[in-house]
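User: Mind token order:
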Amino acid sequence: MPPPQPSWGPPPPGYGPYPGMPPRRKSNGPMIALILGGVVILGLGAVGVFAATLNNKVKDTGYSAYTTQSPTFSLPTTTDTPTETSAPARPSASRTPSAPPTPAGPKAVYALADHPFLKPGFGANTISGCNLPAMDYSPAGQDRYLRAALPCIESMWKPAMNAANLPYQPVELHIITESAQYPCGTVRPDQTARYCQGGIYWTANAYAAERNPNNPNHPGKYLGQLAHEYGHHIQWLTGMLKASDRAQYDAGGWDTPKGLDLNRRMELQATCFGGMSLAPLSHGAIPIDVIRVALTDAGNRGDYDIYPTKDHGTPQNNASWVDRGYKSNKASECNTWAADPGAVS
């Protein structure tokens, strides 16, 4: 059977929580500087800012243990200094805050294989029901269907995020029917859905136009793809997506051998998290045939041989990871960052 239409492409610039980062970092050896008056001063200032930025990043030690840490700042304690008067000087007293400091809330952890969310114990909660409308394949119908499914998915994942002391916020859904600018660049209506900074950009016409035996127009296809994009939302909330972006940058770019390996691990983890989203829904929340088609559709997507760029993993590996997430419903089973190379090829 023919593969699905090409649906993958290079990650958009700034894919993840910090748009605008250069796509690659590489050393080109010494460069000859042209010194022209005041340009010297500006150039030195720019070099100083760039060096400070690099010094604040943890160096790449291999993505199996890649972590990042934001710099911390503290203010010195301020004391009252006695002034010279005719009266005797009084001892200085330290100033104390008028109210206790606000306790720190949940924060994302910028790590990959060693991320705490990938330790045993975290999974999507089972729900009793999910009332999805009849599927209408128009953009408006897809919008209604997906918006009805999202609260079900979110109600399964929020408790796991809270238990892991990680931040949570609902995802935003945007239906795209024409080329548009979004925080990560440009999204075209003929592409598959995109995720960026808390939002799913859903290209409704692209899915409705898919016509081959591997991708029947069935509600399960839409639910499965929504589950995959929501998997990217979990990566973003936990901090894994940002850590992956930084690791790709340190590797020299997403299209280097290591960068592509990281991209496949990131996409296959989203597929595995998508399987976890489908697992609780299979206990009577929605018809089981919708779940079956969703799983099959995930296994029919990926880097077929006809595609020159291998950045999403083979269809066989996509099928393996979505099945693994679905059968285990454990985030620890979705640690693609620690998987053998063959499992993420």
About this structure: The beta strands are 172-176, 180-182, 185-187, 194-196, 199-203. Residues 211 and 217 are 8 Å apart (CA to CA). The radius of gyration is 24 Å. The chain is about 35% helix and 5% strand.
